[in-house]
Automatic annotation (TrEMBL), chain A:
Species this chain originates from: Cryobacterium frigoriphilum
Domain (PEP-utilising enzyme mobile): residue spans on this chain: 527-597
NCBIfam families named in the record: PRK08296.1-2 (NF006150), PRK08296.1-5 (NF006153)
Molecular function GO terms recorded: transferase activity, transferring phosphorus-containing groups
Organism domain of life: Bacteria
Xref: Gene3D superfamilies: Phosphohistidine domain
Protein name: PEP-utilising enzyme mobile domain-containing protein
InterPro entries: PEP-util_enz_mobile_dom (IPR008279), PEP_Utilizing_Enz (IPR051549), Phosphohistidine_dom_sf (IPR036637)
Automatic annotation (TrEMBL), chain B:
Lineage of producing organism: Bacteria, Bacillati, Actinomycetota, Actinomycetes, Micrococcales
Family according to the record: Belongs to the PEP-utilizing enzyme family.
Keyword list, A-Z: ATP-binding, Kinase, Magnesium, Metal-binding, Nucleotide-binding, Pyruvate, Transferase
Entry protein name: Phosphoenolpyruvate synthase
Biological process annotations from GO: gluconeogenesis
Pfam families, sorted: PPDK_N
């Protein structure tokens, strides 16, 4: 039997114009020529969920910190019996990962260690999590305190007279080191609870699949998932502000949200405006520390730095309120649906099974909020501050002539930034010009050319020969990389032409026109009633989820952001289709079946109105069915019609 | 008119009375009253049968013939059976019973623009007949046109109380012949595009979180009697999501034959065999209705359903029958659940175990 494989990274030429791209990255991040045999022996999958576009040299900090800290917790803190960390490489600018298993012989010895360590966390979850809150707030405060102003012409007289003994150059270097160290620290905190959250989820999941073989993944997710998460708070704040604007009669003042200063000034001056501005200011920090991307790119826009974004969303919400639409997430319905699902499964269990089910579900529900909420604290808030400070430093060095554009620094590796910074402080100290301004501008432009060239080519979904079965728990859960998914990528899918298969991540069926979005800058193109098709989505796209009918992504599993957000908004989603966003064209009519994980391009479709009705109907199908049942079965007069019927029901 | 002592329409106001209606009709009345889409029809009550037997004056003959019968004497049982069935099928129906039936038949026909064919099915009252869960198979007469044809088949249903199989069954189980009675269902025929059964549990594992649907083209009789291999679709009962599909060979279908005013078995083309006989939304609708029936009767159900090609999409699913699933659900809930050795405790031990299982290391 011939085994199908993905290409070897060693056989892939870079895109034209990207020759020499490897030199942009640290030696340990690329596939080294003399390690061919070792590297080809591993299966690598592309993590385009977190790194959908080419990472510039400075931006490798994101996956280096994130993925090494993930590994650190599996391997060194918790000693998760079957799983170590995940190796990562950069290839043609894209990030590839390969899970590291634990040798069979070492697994048993790790079990007691894991039980002691993880057990302690589960037993003391609330206390430790409260402590975590303190730690992460402290880290963010420290990051916020950093500043990267240009060095003064002369040392402050007070520093001289006080006998301080060191200059501002010393502080500048220290602050850069601190920027990196604080961020590394935050990423350690990121994984302090996350892996455990997944482990508890997995435990409940395994139990469910054991007692209810074939139970849909979505059922488990819906039972565990909370409905009132901090991750949804930014969007909820926008809705509150929209309602307040309606209440205070300020709706006419959002005409030019592209100019936030003028808009805010206009609001402040209006009658009732002070109250609104006070609410806006209170919501802004921390909740607008929210990226339209995912926290891993220097160019990510954060709401707090681009107030035109939240103001634009507020304007949209006001418009919908004025049209009589309901803008709130259907929280009560979500809770009712969650309770219904849980109750119906519970009814089928024996008393012993029920005790185990309730215990496991209880633990999963206790730990699960972290799985969603951490994202706000790290990817959004911490990384928002990090990138702001990094941009401040890049702009300062641009002022000093190190590069032509404000983003020049991101084409340097972080160790090269420190070199450049030392060059700068040396020039300052010596009183002669630094070397950087005559070296970096040309080099940055050369590198920019390479990055642009790499950007022209999409990555392979994976490299080398896949294993027969994917068992690594985190790969399955976080990335949704299943054996079926790999078959899909290899073109072994038996899906007919015009159909895409992925994970049934959020239930319901909807039809509508496709809107293919490959970057957050295109979000404004999304129209009411569209079906969003994207390589990957970000939680901060929340405000557009009120407009769309369904979501389709290329990558991501049951726990991907698109899946979580869609379940929260009660709309169908199919994730991990592999190639939908590159094959579907904006305007094509799609049918998205979130119950079965299929997306179909519908050649001839019904009228818009008809589809809209279908949508409303289908979205609420399961809930409706339950409701109807309650109603039709209310009169209890039919119980005793048949003795044989009753026999079974008393079992 | 809807109700007399002899007739009860499924959608009449009276609560289902098992004594009077037999299991099948009682269930159809209950389902109709619960708002389920049951094809319209009426029950010829056990009072009709009782009046018929009384008027025919054959009650004494019945007892005498059955009195000293040996269940193992197959030849004698067959002889008695044939004689009793002849007695029943050849006697006239009393005038008042007949009048009520004729009125009901016309009232049913009056609901439609043109004359519709009907199905006639027996509806036994208790353990008078072998294995209640075979009831659907034994006396079902399809696509009957015209009142005389219907009357004749009603008598045939009555006579079926005395098939050799029924007689032997009662003898072996010491079920007395006193008080034997039989109701009959007369129901508008469904012009089924696809039909089949659904069980509100997975009969192979006993997993009650599943609904297993069997579906094939045409009328459901070929599925019920096992003459075709139907499509087999497993649905999660709580989420109403499909978890497994197996396409069956379903080589034949039973469809109306306008030329002969009856039914004809046709071969199914290769292209139609290769795909599921029901759509995704039809699967959801069938599962929903099966779940509804289970909730109504408060125990796992085995339903028969059909998609009527004369009705519009979304309103074309009909429920023909719902009865307790008798094979698996007789035990307790706990026994019915999969026998997997699930650890009762939760906490770090079971979490560790789950991790190892997930990774294939335990």
């Amino acid at each position: 039997m011939t085994e199908k494989s993905f290409p070897s990274p060693y056989d892939q030429a870079p895109a034209a114009g990207a020759e020499g791209w490897k030199d942009l990255y640290a030696y340990n991040l690329v596939f080294q020529q003399n390690r061919r045999e070792v590297e080809e022996g591993k299966f690598w999958f592309c993590d385009s969920q977190h790194w959908p576009t080419v990472t510039k040299p400075f931006e490798t900090i994101g996956f280096e910190f994130a993925v090494s800290c993930l590994g650190q917790y599996n391997t060194r803190h918790l000693l998760i019996p079957p799983a170590n960390g995940i190796e990562f490489r950069i290839h043609n600018g894209y990030v590839f990962m390969s899970p590291v298993g634990v040798p069979e012989a070492e697994i048993a010895a790790r079990v007691p260690e894991f039980m002691a360590r993880a057990g302690h966390y589960f037993q003391n979850w609330e206390t430790l999590l409260e402590q975590w809150q303190g730690k992460i707030h402290g880290t963010i405060d420290e990051l916020n305190a950093l500043s990267f102003a240009a060095l003064p012409d002369k040392v402050d007289i007070n520093d001289v007279t006080s006998g301080k003994g060191t200059g501002p150059n010393n502080d500048l270097l220290a602050r850069y080191d601190e920027l990196i160290a604080l961020t590394y620290r935050a990423w350690q905190y990121h994984f302090e609870f996350l892996n455990l959250g997944y482990v508890a989820y997995l435990d409940f999941f395994s139990f469910c699949t054991e007692v209810f073989p074939g139970i849909p993944d979505q059922a488990v997710a819906k039972m565990v998932q909370g409905v009132d998460m901090e991750l949804f708070r930014p969007d909820d704040e926008l809705k509150k502000l929209a309602k307040l604007a309606v209440e205070l009669g300020l709706t006419g003042l959002f005409g030019d949200t592209e100019n936030p200063e003028a808009t805010l000034a206009g609001l402040a001056a209006a009658s009732g405006g002070t109250e609104w501005i006070a609410a806006f200011t209170e919501a802004k920090d921390p909740w607008f520390n929210f990226t339209v991307g995912n926290g891993f790119y220097a160019h990510d826009k954060y709401w707090i730095d681009h107030l035109e974004l939240p103001l634009g969303y507020i304007r949209d919400y006001i418009g919908r309120l004025q049209n009589g639409q309901i803008i709130d997430r259907p929280v009560a319905e979500l809770v009712a649906e969650r309770d219904r699902i849980t109750e119906e499964y519970c009814e089928l269990l024996s008393p012993e099974q029920l005790a185990a089910f309730e215990g496991k579900l209880g633990l999963a529900r206790q730990v699960y909020p972290y799985v969603e909420n951490h994202n706000f604290y790290i990817e959004h808030w911490t990384m928002g501050v990090f990138w702001r400070k990094a941009r401040e430093l890049s702009a300062m060095l641009q002022q000093q002539g190190f590069w032509a554009d404000a983003d020049g620094m991101f084409f340097l590796r972080r160790d090269e930034v420190r070199e450049a910074l030392f060059d700068y402080v040396t020039g300052w100290a010596v009183g002669a010009p630094a070397i950087g301004p005559s070296y970096w501008p040309e080099e940055v432009e050369r590198r920019r050319g390479i990055v642009d060239a790499l950007q022209q080519q999409r990555p392979q979904p994976a490299l080398n020969t896949p294993p027969a079965v994917i068992t690594e728990p985190f790969t399955l859960m976080l990335w949704g990389i299943t054996s079926d998914q790999i078959k899909n990528w290899l073109g072994d899918s038996d899906a007919p032409e015009g159909e895409f298969r992925g994970m049934a991540a959020s239930s319901g069926v909807a039809e509508g026109p496709a809107r293919v979005i490959s970057s957050s800058d295109q979000l404004s193109e999304v129209r009411e009633g569209d079906i969003l098709v994207a390589p990957v989505t970000a939680p901060s796209w929340g405000p557009i989820f009120g407009k769309i009918r369904a979501t389709v992504t290329d990558i991501g599993g049951m726990m991907s952001h698109a899946a979580i957000v869609c379940r929260e908004y009660g709309m169908p989603a199919v994730t991990g289709t592999g190639t939908a966003s590159s094959q579907i064209v904006t305007g094509q009519w799609l049918r998205v079946d979130g119950n079965n994980g299929t997306v179909t391009i519908v050649e001839e479709h019904a009228t818009e109105e008809r589809a809209a009705e279908d949508h409303v109907h289908d979205l609420t199908l399961a809930g409706d069915a339950a409701m109807q049942l309650e109603q039709t079965l209310e009169p209890a007069g039919f119980e005793a019609i048949d003795g044989t019927v009753f026999e079974g029901s008393h079992a | 008119m809807t109700t007399t002592p002899y007739i009860q329409f499924f959608d009449g106001a009276e609560a289902p009375n098992h004594e009077l209606l037999g299991g099948k009709c009682a269930s159809l009345v209950a389902l109709t009253q619960a708002g389920m889409p049951v094809p319209p029809g009426f029950a010829i009550t056990t009072a009709s049968y009782d009046a018929f037997i009384a008027a025919a004056g054959i009650e004494h003959d019945i007892h005498t013939l059955l009195a000293d019968l040996d269940a193992d004497d197959v030849v004698e049982v067959d002889r008695v059976s044939a004689q009793l069935r002849f007695e029943i099928e050849s006697r006239p129906v009393p005038a008042d019973v007949r009048a009520d039936f004729v009125a009901a038949y016309h009232a049913l026909q009056a609901r439609f623009g043109e004359p519709v064919p009907v199905a006639v099915r027996s509806s036994a009252t208790a353990e008078d007949l072998p294995d209640a869960s075979f009831a659907g198979q034994q006396d079902t007469y399809l696509w009957l046109n015209g009142i005389e044809d219907v009357t004749e088949h009603i008598r045939r249903c009555w006579a079926s109380l005395f098939t050799s199989r029924a007689i032997t069954y009662r003898l072996k189980n010491n079920i007395p012949n006193e008080g034997l009675s039989m109701a009959v269902a007369v129901q508008k025929m469904v012009n089924a595009r696809a039909a089949g059964v659904a069980i509100t549990m997975d009969p192979t594992t006993g997993d009650r979180s599943k609904i297993v649907i069997e579906a094939s083209y045409g009328l459901g009789e070929l599925v019920v009697s096992g003459l075709v291999t139907p499509d087999n679709v497993t649905v999660d009962k709580i989420m109403l999501m499909v978890v497994k599909r197996v396409i069956g060979s379903k080589h034949a279908e039973l469809v109306p034959d306008p030329a002969n005013a009856g039914l004809v078995e046709l071969e199914v083309s290769a292209a139609r065999r290769a795909v599921l006989s029901i759509s995704e939304s039809e699967i959801t609708a069938i599962a929903t209705i099966a779940k509804k029936a289970e909730k109504h009767f408060r125990c796992p159900q085995d339903i028969e359903w059909a998609l009527d090609r004369d009705l519009p999409d979304g309103a074309n699913l009909l429920l023909l029958q719902s009865r307790p699933e008798t094979v698996h659900s007789s035990g307790s809930t706990a026994d019915a659940a999969p026998a997997a050795a699930v650890t009762g405790q939760f906490g770090i031990e079971s979490i560790t175990r789950s991790l190892l299982i997930q990774a294939g290391k335990a």
